[in-house]
Design a protein that fits this description.
The complex is a heterodimer of chains A (109) and B (113). Chain A has 109 residues and is mainly β. Chain A has no helices and nine strands. In chain A, the strands form two sheets. Chain A has a five-stranded mixed β-sheet with strand order 1-9-8-3-4, with no helix packed on it. The chains are: A mainly beta (109), B mainly beta (113).
Chain lengths: 109, 113
């Protein structure tokens, strides 16, 4: 599995966009980038994933650089309920999800 | 409602006792997983099952056992051989081995006294 690097914590004002970066410089050509988040004492929640192209769903947008060595998860209008730990994971095929320590996002009023 | 259920939410046991954690899914998923999470840490894979009557060890299988007799159920037994069983246990499932997206249950917090 490719390793990922995320900042340990970030702050965001409510209503503003939250941009969470992730470095995955050793990613292979067929490895997907996945994002999950975990609200305190709950199970992780799937957010979005992508391979090469940028992706958007009802929760977030995923921007992957052209060289695929990094990506950014964008929460366009952060709310207090988005306060959580966000995990960036790369994997291919049937593999275990390797969760690091993620980025703790704090959304403040 | 479709989803993954884990019960109970909180579980207390005395040291030396085996305990079984329940995980049920009605998503018709083939693959199921058990993870362990310690405070401030990421998740670590204990066991996974790609299909009924088949399962494989993950990274930290020692002291744990599982069964997969039914597609919808994947119980985890924490045995007395597990040296540090107090943790948050998470069950997940995915459609099949070719699908990467895993969906998680709410977790069971096990405390061994």
């Amino acid at each position: 599995d490719a390793k990922t690097t995320q900042p340990p914590s970030m702050d965001c004002a409510e209503g503003r966009a939250a941009n969470l970066p992730c470095n995955h410089s050793t990613i292979s050509g067929n490895e997907y980038v996945y994002w999950y988040r975990q609200i305190h004492s709950q199970g992780p929640q799937y957010i979005i994933h992508g391979l090469k192209n940028n992706e958007t769903n009802e929760m977030a947008s995923l921007i992957i650089t052209e060289d695929r060595k990094s990506s950014t998860l964008i929460l366009p209008h952060a709310t207090l309920r988005d306060t959580a730990v966000y995990y960036c994971i790369v994997r291919v095929g049937f593999q275990k999800l390797v969760f690091g320590t993620g980025t703790r996002l704090l959304v403040s009023p | 409602d479709g989803g993954i259920t884990q019960s109970p939410k909180y579980l207390f046991r005395k040291e030396g006792q085996n305990v079984t954690l329940s995980c049920e899914q009605n998503l018709n998923h083939d693959a199921m997983y058990w993870y362990r999470q310690d405070p401030g840490q990421g998740l670590r894979l204990i066991y996974y099952s790609q299909i009924v009557n088949d399962f494989q060890k993950g990274d930290i299988a020692e002291g744990y056992s599982v069964s997969r007799e039914k597609k919808e159920s994947f119980p985890l037994t924490v045995t007395s051989a597990q040296k540090n069983p107090t943790a948050f246990y998470l069950c997940a499932s995915s459609i099949d081995r070719g699908t990467d997206t895993q969906y998680f249950g709410p977790g069971t917090r096990l405390t061994v006294l």
